[in-house]
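Kindly go through one protein, given below as sequence and tokens. The question is how this chain folds according to its tokens.

***
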Amino acid sequence: MTKVAPSLLAADFLHLEHEIGRMAEAGADYLHFDVMDGQFVPNISFGFPLMAAARKGPLPLDVHLMIERPEQFIDAFAKAGASIITVHQEATKHLDRCLHMIRDAGCLAGIALNPHTAPDDLRYLMGEFDLVLVMTINPGFGGQKMLPGCIQKIADVRALLDSYGRDAIIEVDGGVNMQNAALLSEKGASLLVAGTACFGAEDPGAFIEHIHSLG
């Protein structure tokens, strides 16, 4: 079953408790929590207090760190309630150490690949991560259209993982909607991040049910 992680960036911030509850009732598997520092990406988003509040809700938190030197904050995000913590390889000088820190903190460890980042480096870290996040937009802003050239990368990552006998989660973030979800699942994605397609939908349950029916 392909899973869904609604992106909190697309929620109505005046009614976050209601919005999170609405996604849980619709059948979401995770709540995707984008953390931006204004340095690694040209935007600033959520911090620890909001994350700790969101963790009191019914959904586990899928935390995507778009920040410089993420290793400085791993323990704090884990204590705030993260179930998954994903970092960008370009954001840390010692990715292997960072992944170990995430696992030692009791979370699943993810590596995010920007649109320009080739998946080849993953082969040197096999066994050190639980998830690969394929970015199909340039990180930093919600509501962008999917970059078509990134779709093949999903299949490339799946083939690479299969060649090493790894069943790590392949997550896709950026421009996911009803029209392209089946293709993404077919290429090998097992977890889809969706913002507007979930929070902006009149019936998010129908969208999530469609995703769950894939793969």
Observations:
- The first strand starts at residue 3 and ends at 6.
- The two ends are 5 Å apart (CA to CA).
- The mean pLDDT is 93.
